[in-house]
Input
Amino acid sequence: MSSSDENHLHDGRPREWYGDGVEFRCLGPECGECCSGKHGPGAVWVDPAEMQAIAEALRMPFETFTSKFVRLVDGRYSLVEKPNFDCAFYEAGKGCTVYNARPRQCRTFPFWGRILRSRRSWEESGRCCPGINEPGAVVPAEEIRNYLAGKAGEEGRQAKGGQAGRSQP
Ligand code: SF4
Ligand code: SF4
Output
């Protein structure tokens, strides 16, 4: 028999703690915390289509792009980092230099399943992203559900020039 707790309903289904929406607004390239290495190393996962899109944005042959900017992390493809752990495409004060071709991971931050699984993980992510809980910038539950269903994120919510959200590998 299931019992309810902070994160689950009586029948075991996850509780939608964000039913009234959440507050988030990207503070733009002036922030850039999620693309920088300020919080340590990370990973920006990319699939072949995303690699191709960035290679095209850089007007670079696919093979040249992958040898220069893609690495394997735990058997998955990720963009490389600079020695200070910044994403290879992040420039301080300027933001993402491949913004229009940035991967889905970057377009959908912070509306990821593992961040939205509980209010606690949302609040914890707020330590790295000052846009989380930005007063008055409400993202409705419907939009959050679309992110979780993979139906949103092509335009992203981030301000032009910022930003992403790098997974810890
Ligand atoms: S998503 Fe968050 S951490 Fe990234 S630039 Fe915007 S406010 Fe800053
Ligand atoms: S948005 Fe993504 S690709 Fe662009 S700098 Fe940030 S982490 Fe890198």
Summary: The pocket of iron/sulfur cluster (ligand 1) is lined by residues 26-27, 31-34, 109, 129-131, 158, 162-163 (CB under 6 Å).
